[in-house]
């Protein structure tokens, strides 16, 4: 009974130890390796280079991606890291797009982890054959005509195997999966992990925008890869051509939890810390020298330092005072606006009452004069309209301009009259002005008219010899009246002629 209990106890301890080791081993420390990665934006520099990478062949680097091989016939290109890795286990997230116009593409894209860099125009997807390390191929062309493409597979080479192009390398592959990665709405993704001699490939088919929508493609154990290798990507086209673009290539080094690298300070950090410490020492030395040279300022220094800064309570009081001041300003502005509104309301009410009183007085006056008065509705006030006000203002402006013109004309006439009077005063007195031709013709016409009247009167008297003249008006009286009228008319004509002559002198 005791022996059986010991056996069960040891078995239980072994199982628990295995479980703990598996769980503990599953915990992995990841560290991003920027020297073995690239991503947009500003993927390529102004000179076209990619930091920590070098590319050749027909590869083209831009700010957003690296086009390993363009969609032209017989194109090859590759991009490789400049320095080898300094870690054993790694994980790579690669985001790429393979697009083309045709239903079938060629040739494909390859991911490399090799002991040495490959060429930029090799025979195996744009890189060298007989490599030492790992190659993962995204093959889009069906060379063996078995209708098993596009196909993803991994191949490990020790430098002695030559790639089998006729069979698409299927006889040499370690594992693979049939997945379509051409002409997808979203970029396709591949997560390649090599940890504890286990190779795992997760694939995202690009049909969704979810970055974590991965599915298992292959998993191979007991894969031994060379240490301190180079990462690379290559692509090639043949008679058919696709665009092979790589958008992201992010590398993380994998470390067991108990072997995680210690984050030690780098040389740059140490140099900066040393410079800062030297600066602090120099500043303290300058302060001491200043205090020795100016001992009178030593007692005032703490007070000055306190005056330079404010405490938390002072800051809170200042903020409270500022808030209350703003509230007071707002209340004062509201009070002012309220007073303006009350004043406007009082003025409006006074105007309304005055207009109502004026309307009532006018109605009483009309009733007293005997004229019918119209009833004014309650609450109705006949006010002048805006167009009437505008017309009134225009009329006033015109009247003012007219009065101004009349004033100018009167001033001009007055000045000219003064000039005429001055000129007449300079002339000799008692000078008889000769009668003009117009006056002579007028006098002649009046004389002819009187003679014609006399002739008519004589003819009228001769035609009625037997009749008696009426006793109301005699011929003598009539002639006297005619002479008086003639004299008045003649005097007025002479006066008018003198006035005309004066105005002619004026102009």
TrEMBL record:
It is found in: Endoplasmic reticulum-Golgi intermediate compartment membrane. It is a single-pass type I membrane protein. Residues 286-303 have a biased composition (Basic and acidic residues). GO terms for molecular function: D-mannose binding. Residues 286-309 are annotated as: Disordered. Residues 30-254 form the L-type lectin-like domain. Keywords: Disulfide bond, Lectin, Membrane, Signal, Transmembrane, Transmembrane helix. Pfam families: Lectin_leg-like. One of its GO terms (cellular component) is endoplasmic reticulum membrane. PROSITE patterns: L_LECTIN_LIKE (PS51328). InterPro entries: ConA-like_dom_sf (IPR013320), Intracellular_Lectin-GPT (IPR051136), Lectin_leg (IPR005052). GO terms for biological process: endoplasmic reticulum to Golgi vesicle-mediated transport. The keyword Iron-sulfur does not apply. The chain crosses the membrane at residues 7-27, 473-495. This is Protein ERGIC-53 isoform X1. It comes from Agrilus planipennis.
């Amino acid at each position: 009974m005791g022996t059986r209990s010991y056996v069960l106890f040891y078995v239980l301890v072994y199982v628990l130890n295995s479980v703990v080791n598996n769980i503990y081993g599953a915990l992995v420390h990841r560290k991003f390796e920027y020297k073995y990665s690239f991503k947009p934006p500003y993927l390529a520099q102004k000179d076209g280079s990619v930091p920590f990478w070098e590319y050749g062949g027909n590869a083209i680097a831009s700010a957003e991606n690296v086009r390993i091989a363009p969609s032209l016939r017989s194109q090859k290109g590759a991009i490789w890291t400049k320095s080898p890795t300094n870690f054993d286990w790694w994980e790579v997230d690669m985001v790429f797009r393979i697009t083309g116009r045709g239903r079938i593409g060629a040739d494909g894209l390859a991911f490399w982890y090799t002991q040495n860099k490959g060429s930029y125009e090799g025979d195996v997807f744009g890189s060298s054959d007989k490599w030492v390390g790992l190659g993962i191929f995204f093959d889009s062309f069906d060379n063996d005509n078995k209708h098993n493409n596009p196909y993803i597979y991994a191949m490990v080479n020790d430098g002695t195997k030559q790639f089998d192009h006729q069979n698409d390398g299927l006889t040499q592959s370690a594992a693979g999966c049939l997945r379509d990665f051409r002409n997808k709405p979203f970029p396709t993704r591949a997560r390649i992990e090599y940890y504890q001699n286990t190779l795992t490939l997760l694939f995202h088919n690009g049909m969704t925008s979810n970055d974590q929508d991965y599915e298992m493609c292959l998993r191979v154990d007991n894969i031994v890869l060379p240490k301190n290798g180079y990462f690379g990507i290559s692509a090639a086209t043949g008679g058919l051509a696709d665009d092979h673009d790589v958008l992201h290539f992010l590398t993380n080094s994998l470390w067991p939890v108990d072997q995680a690298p210690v984050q030690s300070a780098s040389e740059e950090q140490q140099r900066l810390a040393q410079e800062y410490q030297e600066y602090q020492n120099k500043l303290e030395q300058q302060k001491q020298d200043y205090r020795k040279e100016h001992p009178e300022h030593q007692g005032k220094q703490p007070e000055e330092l306190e005056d330079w800064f404010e405490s938390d309570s002072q800051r809170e009081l200042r903020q409270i005072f500022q808030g209350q001041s703003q509230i007071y300003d707002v209340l004062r502005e509201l009070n002012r606006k309220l007073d303006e509104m009350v004043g406007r309301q009082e003025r409006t009410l006074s105007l309304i009452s005055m207009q109502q009183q004026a309307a009532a007085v006018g109605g009483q006056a009309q009733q007293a004069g005997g004229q019918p008065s119209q009833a004014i509705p309650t609450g109705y006030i006949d006010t002048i309209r805006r167009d009437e006000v505008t017309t009134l203002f225009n009329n006033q402006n015109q009247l003012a301009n007219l009065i101004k013109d009349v004033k100018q004309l009167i001033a001009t006439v007055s000045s000219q009259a003064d000039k005429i009077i001055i000129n007449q005063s300079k002339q000799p007195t008692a000078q008889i002005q000769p009668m003009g031709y117009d006056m002579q013709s007028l006098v002649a016409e009046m004389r002819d008219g009187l003679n014609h009247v006399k002739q008519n009167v004589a003819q009228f008297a001769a035609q009625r010899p037997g009749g008696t003249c009426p006793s109301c008006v005699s011929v003598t009286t009539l002639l006297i009246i005619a002479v008086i009228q003639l004299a008045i008319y003649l005097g007025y004509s002479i006066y008018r002629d003198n006035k005309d002559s004066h105005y002619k002198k004026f102009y």
